[in-house]
Amino acid sequence: MILRDLLQLVLFVGLLAALSPLLGRYVHQVFSGRRTFLHPVLGPVERGVYSLSGIHPDENQTWSRYAVSLIGFSLAGFLLTFGVLLFQDKLPLNPQGFPGLSWDLALNTAVSFLTNTNWQSYGGETTMSHFSQMVALTYQNFVSAAVGIAVCAAVVRGIARNESSSIGNFWSDLVRITLYVLLPLSIIGALIMLWQGMVQNFDAGVTATTLEGGKQFIATGPVASQIAIKLLGTNGGGFFNVNAAHPFENPTALASFLQSFYILIIPSALVFFLGDAVGSRRHAWTVWAVMLALFIGGVLWIYFSELHGTHLLQQIAGGAVPNMEGKEVRFGVFGTSLFATATTDASCGAVNAMHDSLTPLGGMLVLFNMLLGEIIYGGVGSGLYGMILFILLTVFIAGLMVGRTPDYLGKRIEGREITWCMVALLACATPILCFSAVAAVSSWGTGALNNAGAHGLSEILYAFTSGAQNNGSAFAGLSANVPVWNVLLALAMFIGRFGVMLSMLVVAGSLAARKKRPISDSSFPVEGPTFGLLLLGIIFIVGALTYLPALSLGPIVEQFQMIRISHLHKRSDHFCIKLGIIGTVNAVLQFFFRKIGKEFFHNLVSSLLIRHTLQFVHRNIQFRNSYRYEQTTIICKSF
After folding, report:
1. Which of 9, 21, 187, 256 has the fewest C-beta atoms lying within 10 Å of its C-beta?
2. How far is C-alpha 557 from the chain's CA centre?
3. pTM
4. Rounded to whole angstroms, how far apart are CA atoms 622 and 559?
5. What pLDDT is recorded for position 377?
6. Can you tell me the distance from the alpha carbon of 552 to that of 62, in angstroms, rounded to the nearest whole number?
7. Which stretches of the chain drop beneath a pLDDT of 70?
8. 415 burial via Cβ count (<10 Å: 0-12, 13-18, 19+)
């Protein structure tokens, strides 16, 4: 590994480890209703929102009332976003004069931003007006992130409270996390991005003269204000079609590094919020270390997969050559690997390179990150309650294996919690596997592909995984802006988001009502290396093995195909060398026998040489399948 890249990784992890506990403690203060350093400024705003909306922040809700409030708020947000997108041509701040979206694209986009997925079946700068970007999409970037963190807080309260029927107040959670966490961090993030050269204006764009003398229209708009929250809220939807690979959306290598950090800082901090809420920082560090191990492993996996390139590139160059297809040279292999791992670990979906152009092993890793359930830090809120799901499964399975009563931080884990944890797992796995299977054998599914074979299956699997796991990134080779794709992806996003979210609220309500027992030597330990390894094992066994057959048919097969093709090229090179020798011998014999007037002997020897070569080529089935077979046959016959 290059020293420069290693230092960047160490710096990234160091910043994450240093700032996450501080932000986690601050989030705990916010959710506890305690006074923070921002209360003198934002306290009056918070009280004004409560007064105008009739919210009683001290009124606690049961899990069912919490869920009803969440669903009602989400439904209202969906209708607002759907209406703005459908009628954007009738609304202001549309300097480009864009028409309203079709019903299926508006439906897909509204559900996408509602569920914190931000899947985009369109090019932002050629489809969305400034009004749609700011009012519909940026609004959802804030509130969808706030909803995820609010549910996370409710689940944590369920673990921390003792014989309680309530898990908090959805409305006060929503207001507090938006005002005191998301809004201040977004302002800071936007200012830093402006410093790095990101665009922020209300213009339609500028017309530039190219070096060839032609004219090119370059779109601009309110970019920085949207990009900050798209990263901090792990939303991912870009202002431009190529997302963070666009120089106006990701101007410099430093900006790309900071954007990767923005993606992970809140999900990472929420782990320490859990530790403070339950009074166990050691447990928080253990969970955080498991996430960190998976994160670093992912970065290194993609880094070395892309650094060594493909076998064919290595043969042509005579050594290891980085795979730079689909990557920005200004970010390089490490910048791409860091961003790709962070965005697929955290259900963000922003990209600074085309994942479709990664090597098969690199593409498999970003897909694998999502298939685990977006729990490696994960989305804001959703990542932590997704990891709590696996923690409960670990405690339950390990407790049964060693003969101890399964309990988690003093709360006994029973069949009800495990049942709903499995419902949550199936809520993601079902649309991914079922919809991918249907698309793989349907004309509308295969017709949208840019690639056939194993890579085409990977494109389908990636799309539905990205939707159901609420990531939003794509393999980019898929033409998904047709009604059937838009509707099915919207359904996958909806099931994946609310199926897990509502299931975990049921678990939170069940745990909150349970009596908390003192933690003793007989309690199952949930901190330290042993528990961390157990948790890793359950994540791989339960999470990863569910999708192993699908991965085997996609990126794993593609990797073997790539190796096989490189060997075919190597063998065909040897054949061509042999033919060159035969041709040279044939020419010498022809010259010699003609000189002595014995052309009969020349024809006899030449035919024997050519017949031997053709028989050898025909016997080698692999070579017959290569692209040089036809060339070789023509050369032989021409002798």
Report:
1. 187
2. 21
3. 0.87
4. 17
5. 93
6. 44
7. 522, 565-639
8. exposed
